[in-house]
Task: structure prediction
Amino acid sequence: MAAPGINLYTGQTPNGIKISITLEELNLSYKTHHVDIRKNVQKEPWFLEINPNGRIPALTDTFRDGKMIRLFESGSIMQYLVEQYDKDHLISYPQGSRESYEVNNWLFFLNAGVGPMQGQANHFFRYAAEKIDYGINRYQNETRRLYRVLDEHLSKSKSGYLVGSKCTIADIAHWGWVAAAGFAGVDINEFPNLKAWDERMLARPGVEKGRHVPSPHILTRDKEWNEKAAKENREWILRGQENDAK
Result:
């Protein structure tokens, strides 16, 4: 489907690939802008005009009035894309339907739970300047608890997806984080239904294509790769943390 002016500002993160996967699942054309968060590009004035919070992903589009609209926060972007472009409900359900509200339940479960908790697990386990066992255990265990909720829910799903009979933005929102479980020190093998769902999602052409935007996506199941990536990223992440505190 042709879209008049979608510009995606993103990086290779669990939140970033949510949007490119959504765009690919909807078969929408879009222009990608790689925002190099290692160089703090997301804090530059031009980007803050799009997202005043200085985080990726962000998106601009030509709205119905012919003027540009800006979108930031991944959940907001995903909701916008399906409301505006998913007229055939490929990855959504009709607004106001029972299923549409259930999609929102899981979308907010991810945005308020899995993403923040697993992100903190990443930080304390991989990046913190000093090892704090309490922080590591707190956030790894909370991530596991949230994974158990997903695993139990999926055990009752006839379709193998989170809501109804198909993959939706609720699934897409979770996938980048679950695919990165190993980086947070969480073993996906503890959750057989979630692992099967992960593999089911990875087999989707839209997921396969979208996960490699704007750069190749590496599945974080290799311990050596995880350690190497953490070492390479630790310096700029801690530097960015210091800059944010100023």
